[in-house]
Design a protein that fits this description.
The complex is a heterodimer of chains A (374) and B (315). Chain A is α+β, with helices and mostly antiparallel strands and 374 residues long. Chain A has three domains: 43 residues, no CATH class; 58 residues, no CATH class; 216 residues, Orthogonal Bundle (MetI-like fold), CATH 1.10.3720.10. Chain A has 15 helices and eight strands. Chain B is mostly helical and 315 residues long. Chain B has two domains: 44 residues, no CATH class; 242 residues, MetI-like fold, CATH 1.10.3720. Helix content of chain B is 69%, strand content 0%. In chain B, helix 4 packs antiparallel against helix 11. At the A-B interface, helix 1, helix 2, helix 5, helix 6 and helix 7 of A face helix 2, helix 4, helix 5, helix 6 and helix 9 of B.
Amino acid sequence: MAHVTAADLEDLTARPRLFGRRRAGTTGSRPPRERGDRTRSFVLTLLAVVGLALFLSPMLRSVVYAVKSTDQITQAGTPLWPADPVTFAYQGKELPLLVVPLPDGTIRQLALFEPGRKSSMFVDPAAPDAAPIAWQGSWRTLDQIWQFAPHWENFAKVWDLIDYPRLLFNTLAIAVISTIGTLLSCTLVAYGFARFKFPGRNLLFTLLIATIFLPTAVTIIPTYTIFQKLGWVGTWLPLLIPTFFANAYDVFLMRQYFMTIPTEMDEAAAIDGAGPFRTLISVILPQAWPVVIAVAIFHLVYAWNDFFGPLIYLSSDPDIQTIALGLQRFNGVHYRDPGLIQAGTLMTLIIPVIAFLFTQRFFTRGIVITGVEK
Amino acid sequence: MIAPGAARPRSRPRFSGLAWRRARWGYVFIAPWVIGFLAFTAFPMIATLAFTFSNINLNQAEPLQFVGLRNYQTLASDQRTWDSLAVTLKFAVLALPVGVCLPFVVALLLHSRHLRGSGAFRVLFFLPYVVPFVAGVFVWQGMLSADTGWVNGLLKFLGISHPPDWLQDPTWIYPGLVIMGLWGIGGGMIIYLAGLKGIPSDLYEAAKIDGAGAFATLRHITIPMMSPVIFFTIVLGVVDVLQYFLVPLVLKNGTGEPGGSTNFFNLYLYQNFFTFQNMSYGATLAWLLFAISLVLTLLLFRSARHWVYYAGEAR
């Protein structure tokens, strides 16, 4: 690790002060752009494009496989893109078209009429009434002719095989209710830590932060047992109720943000006779909506993607499960059909991805808040 | 919940009268968390600790009793525990450096003033972070497939005639799982980006005046200024990687295939809880995990004094 002492940095920062160029509190800006480094710009951008292409290529593969026919997936030597073999209708049969090099040196597209190990009979689609052409050699060495043909039926099959609307509704309901719980509780707790002095505050706050580092396993069994005794296992309650008791991440985020809001307005409101609740609702919250939105979005994503909670609490009843769990169950049954699995996978990830693309500026804003260190 | 107002002010004179009324409101507001902490963290932790000295299990065939250190004796002699711990550590040694460094490198790239269209890149590099991990597992499972996967397709194209069977080989499974985890870099990347934005630009100007090159600037300004964020990422990364098991659970259905290479510690732990229903031994494993996390976290905090630079302290 770098051994840079504070003195080194003082030395570096002191120098510009000599030139009188130090502007107090200048942060948040990138180093200024200069002219004349087009090459670097090009190389870096190219690097980013290649990196991004590799990074997102699994998504493309997933799409391609989801729209390939099962025949194409199970057959070797097929094109990378979704395609069907081109066929020719002959005597009531669909014959595959192959590229055949003929003894006279010409290469023609012929329909395989009678496949054989050593020699095969072909029909010329241009002249179907002519006599079939005999060709010596193994037809398997010949290239087939393909045409682009996406098969959308995988999505329809998945829709029929799993109760997709039900899973979607469950996931959305759990995500929304737990987000409401998180917002309510974390706002109150963050307000308590940010605006009130009380004995033990620092200790309690340290304790709160320490829970981030606690392995789930060390609390899960008694918690699970209690929920079971309450008859809550097999219901949404174990996933919903705890969110109404705040969590460390979101309290931390909100507290950091609340602390940046000047206290003058709190005091003015107090002089006007507003109680602490009134102050929270009419002074703090109107100024804190960026962090509220950030926490809401992060929690929605978290709840949407949560797997372990639904796995241990909702496994017994498929009707109350979330989409993540539904997908895993689906894979357990249909793992032999990659096209179907990829279609199901895409149907699971499409909603968070679209939601993200629409709200991405809130993500980045929320994240800037995340970056605020103590 | 509300501390007695009369007794305490004597020991803490700054809390009196009006201040106490405010303090009481403070307790009221944090009450949801305090109650939740007691119910869902403190009590279960202590109960879990108590379980380690008992023979409790889910169907309780023999009468519940205090068994002293029996579970700890089992722990010491249980080869599966130590094997699973070795699996987790093997994976951690590979996954942790990638999980800490790669998001940093991508963040540096995205922060570079030379990069065009950095806003779009930022969105797209973050995008897979919102993909549910179960979906991510199935996408990458196909991607890493030995015959039909594009990773091996690319490797073959680059001239590697026998690329590894990533997910079926007991050695290659670890890099395979690390690759599967790449879609999670968005979280770390965006925290690093926020940190990079917070570095005062005059430090870079000063470095330029001193004639520092790109590498020297990175080593003497960016990395020291980013050290608190790097530290934060390492600590969270350690705690996370010790608990890693969900991806192999979904991928291999908890079988530990290939050849026991995915018998992660946490998988064995949860198997004790939910499959073998041996809660007392599972609880012992949970406390072992907690102890290891705690020791590593404390060691990291201790090491932080030597390499983490807090800008506030120097002034």
